[in-house]
Amino acid sequence: MRAEPVLISESDRELLKAWLRTPSMPSGLVTRARIVLWASEGVTMAAIAQRLSISRPTVTLWCQRFRELGPQGLADQPRSGRPATVDREKVIAATLTPPPASLGVTHWSSRLLAKRLKLDHGQVAKVWREMGIKPWGENTFKFSTDPELEAKVIDVVGLYLAPPEGAVVICIDEKTQIQALDRTQPALPMAPNHPAARTHDYIRHGTTSLFAGLEIGTGRVVGQCYDRHTHKEFLAFLKKVANAYPEVELHLVMDNYATHKKQEVKDWLAENPRITVHFTPTSASWMNMVEIWFSIIERQAIHRGTFRSVRELKAAIRAFINGWNPRSQPFVWTKTAEQILTKIDRKKTSATGH
């Protein structure tokens, strides 16, 4: 016996699919979303019940509730005899339903949603906190379109997890356009209950580019500042790295920046067979561990620094590297290539709604 057809709009279909992909979604709502989606595709009540290990009347109930109330009808209704409590599933279902166009907003606030559900906004906010839901938040993402994505992930991760015996693995990149910023007034020092403060206004004294090579086995860094960042500076830095590690097999991890693939660079690498280059996939700078070190030097030495000239900025960078190396520790990669590729596939599937 087939269930009475469930007609579902494309927007509701995408919403229910989004519920299936949301880790914090209560299992009850996920089950009901599957019931409606399968019923809309013509799956029989018996088949749906068997797939989900539930009864046919349960399938019929939630299909009927959806016909009458839409996605919000899939939340549990208050039961008689129970004290009045906030229906968490109802709040979550309503939160994940886009606000009506008449409100002119892109997402719910706790007050707007509370008014619609006839609740106190504090009750809505409490459910959001408990479930880790932040309607106002938004992350960004970018997928690599590199046709050699899988091969490069396997290559680089394999190098991190099992480097060749006796070889040195170095992650190389450049942090460009670092600004030498001076403040218009002296900074105010930190005090109890008051963090350090500085003026919003600043004076720019120029920029420099930092080329760095991170030895992952020790955490030590070879660094050099240049006024430009063309292939000539990059080649000069490669030679500096090679001189710092003479007569040893080097494996260099770097991105696909154009200067890294200039003919002069290729020719020099060909003349130095002890050096092997491993390229990360495009749009995957997170795979280059020197980026972690760049974030460290930015936080600890550059962001809060005051520099009256590029020379002062360069001196501060050298001082940080000189202080870093004696206390450095290995940078340890933990994820396998399989774990990374599985997560990438899952994210892509989630983004396309399939």
Topology:
Layout: H1 10-21, H2 27-40, H3 45-52, H4 56-69, H5 88-95, H6 110-117, H7 121-131, H8 149-161, E1 168-183, E2 202-215, E3 221-226, H9 231-244, E4 250-254, H10 263-270, E5 275-279, H11 290-302, H12 310-327, H13 337-352
Parallel strand pairs: 1-4, 4-5
Antiparallel strand pairs: 1-2, 2-3
Summarize the structure.
Pfam families: DDE_3, HTH_32. With 354 residues, the chain is of the alpha/beta class. 44% of the residues lie in helices and 13% in strands.
Task: Explain the overall architecture.
The two termini are 28 Å apart. This protein has helices spanning 10-21, 27-40, 45-52, 56-69, 88-95, 110-117, 121-131, 149-161, 231-244, 263-270, 290-302, 310-327, 337-352; strands spanning 168-183, 202-215, 221-226, 250-254, 275-279. α1 (10-21) packs antiparallel against α2 and α8 runs antiparallel to α13. Strands 3-2-1-4-5 form a five-stranded mixed β-sheet. The protein is extended. The mean pLDDT is 86. The longest helix is centred in the C-terminal third of the chain and has 18 residues, at 310-327. Helices cover 44% and strands 13% of the residues. It is built from 13 helices and five strands. It is of the alpha/beta class and 354 residues long. α10 links the parallel β4 (250-254) and β5. It folds into two domains: 1-74, no CATH class; 149-342, Nucleotidyltransferase, domain 5 (2-Layer Sandwich), CATH 3.30.420.
